[in-house]
Predict the structure.
Amino acid sequence: MGYEVLKKHWTASHDKPVVSFGVRGIIYLNSAVMNLHFKNVKFVDLLYDDKKRSLAIKPVKEMSQNSYKLKATNPQEASTSAIACRSILKKLKIELTEKKQYIPTWNTQGKFLEIKL
């Protein structure tokens, strides 16, 4: 087998959904999350359950005053996306000193992605 040219903006393929919180207050949704639950979604609402200490990311059809834009990290491939929400993560007292990864679950009743913090 010979050598092949690697794509400049190659991203790892993910079989399992993973949500990452970056040090700059950005939530990243990997390609598995995007393909399973957020295909063609441009906006999301963030919800929080204080008792469960869970954050939910809910796809919405239109932008509202409380919605966040779901931005593709590489628009040409649109495999992963990001939500810039530093102030919300700080309000929830989520440490932003290092990258954190979570395995989310899909809540079929609420139609949102749930992350146990």
Q: What stands out?
A: The longest helix spans residues 31-37. The chain has one domain: 19-116.
